[in-house]
Amino acid sequence: PAPDLPRAANRPTLHQVHSANGTPQLIAIVGRTAAVYRGDRWQTARLKHPRSSHAAVVLAPNHHPGQLLIIAGTRQDTAELFDVESMTSTLLPIRLPFPLDDHAAVRLSPNRVAVAASARRRGRRRRGRGGPRRGRG
């Protein structure tokens, strides 16, 4: 069994990626840390942004070996690519229309990923059960 992760965080994600030589490796995204399990210990690297309630997708092993796409998260509208071999993170030059959390992502093809999220945007007030309020008069 793998030892405990390096530190606790809110809603970490766990993934299996294959390195360039085909070796499966376990990777956890924990806050601002990417932790890769290498046989008997966790090796860690720092992400560009802290991640919580994010989505992550393992990219196609035969096109992008050992790479994990990390998308948004609480108060984040960014995406970054983590490479298991080099233990480096690259912030991608894209911005989502608004921060996402508790969303889902899936790899559609080697170069395409779909992201699904609720329509509720941060900062918008939700309507109550009775619908919109009406003014007096």
Write the layout of secondary structure elements.
Blueprint: E1 13-18, E2 24-37, E3 42-51, E4 55-58, E5 67-73, E6 76-83, E7 88-91, E8 104-109, E9 112-116
Antiparallel strand pairs: 1-2, 2-3, 4-5, 5-6, 6-7, 8-9
Give the distance, in angstroms, between the N- and C-terminal Cα atoms. 68 Å
Spatial sequence of strands, sheet with the most strands: 4-5-6-7
Main sheet overview: 4 strands, antiparallel
Shape assignment: globular
Structural class call reads mainly beta
Q: Count up the helices.
A: 0
Query: Uncertain spans, ≥5 residues at pLDDT below 50?
Result: 123-137
Helix content: under 10%
- Helix/strand order, N-terminal first: EEEEEEEEE
What's the average pLDDT? 80
Radius of gyration: 18 Å
Instruction: Tally the beta strands.
Output: 9
Query: What portion of residues belong to β-strands?
Result: over 45%
Give a written overview of the molecule.
The protein is an all-beta fold. The protein contains no helices and 9 strands. It has strands at about 15-20, 25-35, 40-50, 55-60, 65-75, 75-85, 90, 105-110, 110-115. The N and C termini lie far apart (about 70 Å). Residues about 125-135 have low confidence and may be disordered.
